[in-house]
Amino acid sequence: MRDNNIPCTKTLYNLLWNGDLPVTPFQLPEALSRRQHGKPRISKRLNGKSIDLRPAEVAKRVQFGHWESDTVLGRKKKVEPATFTIVERLTRYYLTIRISGKTAQGVANAMRQLYHEFGKNLEIRTITTDNGSEFAAFSEMEAYGTQVYFAHPYSSWERPVNERSNRILRRFIPKGKSMRNYTDDQILMFSDEINAMPRKRLSYRTPEELFEEYLDQIYKI
Description:
Layout: H1 9-17, H2 29-34, H3 56-60, E1 66-73, E2 82-88, E3 94-99, H4 104-118, E4 126-129, E5 147-150, H5 160-169, H6 184-195, H7 207-220
Parallel strand pairs: 1-4, 4-5
Antiparallel strand pairs: 1-2, 2-3
């Protein structure tokens, strides 16, 4: 006879994704395979403004100047260097910067480098980024006039352009290979090569071509 005090499977999964069980989804691979995309778990901790507050125009990808960012690791070790990545949503223009580690300080230094080297040339209206601890102080970038929004945990599909670009980067930096094997210039060069690749989504034009065209339009105004 069935014990009515035993919760059903659906209830257990709901408790898991709500953070009410003493385990995480990553400890239960079966839970990750059951997770439905498009229904992110409500986070109890956000580094800043939620993606839910982001203007609807950003999702449409019709306006230039909206970006997505993340970090990429070679080896998953605390003392390992990493690569900070950021991509413009409309043109797919992609930038990569080698940082000392997957830390808030490393990410902040990368953004300061971008603003210092390019100034307003990047036209960064908004950035949608991961909610990891390395982005804990990322909201400080709003001092530069950029609005920052954070995706929900375990919701990489909320930054699809960045995720696709990072997968291309893996052709140059395979998983498991230390970032120590690459120089700062090499990491930058990888993004140059990626930006020179024609894309079907861009009618077989390159991100570099489109990005420069939009900048030219801005400077003519």
